[in-house]
Amino acid sequence: MSMRLSYSLRARLLFFLLAAIAVGALVQGAIAYRSTLAQADDIFDSLLQRTALSLGTGDGLLRTGPTHARGAGSPVADDLIIQIWTPDGLRVFNSRSRRPLPDQIVLGFSDARMEGITYRVYSLATPFQVIQVAQDMDVRKDMARALALRTIAPIAAAAPLLMLIIWCVVSWSLRPVKRARAQVAARQPEDLSPVNVQGLPDEIQPLIQELNLLLERMRGAFAQQKQFVGDAAHELRSPLAALRLQLQALQRAGDADSRQLAEQRLAAGIDRATRLVEQLLSMARHESAAAPSPAGPVDLADVLRQALSETLPQANAKSISIEMEGAAQAPLQGHRDALVLLARNLLDNAVKHTPEGKHIRLRLEQTADKTQFVIDDEGPGIAPAERERVFDRFYRAEGNTQHGSGLGLSIARAIAERHGARILLEDAPGGSGLRARVEFPRPR
Predict the structure, then answer these.
(1) Which of 114, 121, 349, 401 is at 20 to 30 A from 299, Cα to Cα?
(2) What are the residues facing 363 on neighbouring strands?
(3) pLDDT band at residue 289 using 50, 70 and 90 as cut-offs
(4) Is 199 left (phi over 0), alpha (psi -120 to 50) or beta?
């Protein structure tokens, strides 16, 4: 079972913004601590050095003997430890006897660790004495820590106010998204109007615009489907009514001849209804192919030969001869099944309107800029004023006495347009009949 992962954009924004503030405060405190500690080192090292130099300028301490500085009487700050030694190693002064410094004297600055405490020590040697001035390093760290906490304290104190401000800003910024969601949620299934993008942030507008494009495509598809269903219902009404009448005529037939004639008419009606349903299914299939499969290499000559073989039974039934001539091969990019349907519909239309015993010519041509095939029949033709209208669904030309669905040319044009081709209806050579010409542009 797959788990659906989801998250709140508001909660994520709040979390990361507050986390950024907290991390920023910690980084600021760490920088303040390091900076203050470095400055404290410089200041206190200078204090140690100045204290040692000031003690080294006088010789009173050498005559007083071992003593210990007390309280406010100390000439230096209480956190300093001072020891003075004679050149022969006798300690004559110690400011804090409880924390003696190491006996090993390293002139200049050094670090010493005694009883778990780290000291910063400055040693100065004069002709009469050796002076050691030391300070606990924790004093410096405590000072730097106090300054760092004072830097973070205002941010910590203002944290509740910052959280409230961030919450209000994030909520206010997401109000257009919430409004768009409510607008979509309140819609009825048949409402496919565009979603209002006014006031939406730039990051959300592309998503809503794509949604509007999808709604527009769905609106067009539904309108097309509605029109198709209405047209199909209208067109199927007549064949079904005719089938019912023919069935009743068959039931009332009183003799064998009448029954045979009724059966023939019923069979012909069933064939016409079947043909109409096939055409409707073909139209629906090609119109619903919103994302057709990629085109592949197709030999148009082979396509025409297959369409011709599927049309020959109807042509032979009317004693119509079909002649194919022209190029032996015509490669192009397309969908083989759809192109076969295109050619077969045009050939069916030619056979349907060509009188018995006449002739149909099919010719395949190739030029530098296009590939085309031409179908010439010897039928009544189509008036120039109606040559565009015959491509509409269920339209039949004026004076057309042939039974048909009026969908063949509409399907053929839809397939041609998907292949970048066009269908032209012209007068056939000789003054009678119709020429159907299909032109495919050749790739450069």
Answers:
(1) 349
(2) 325, 374
(3) low
(4) left
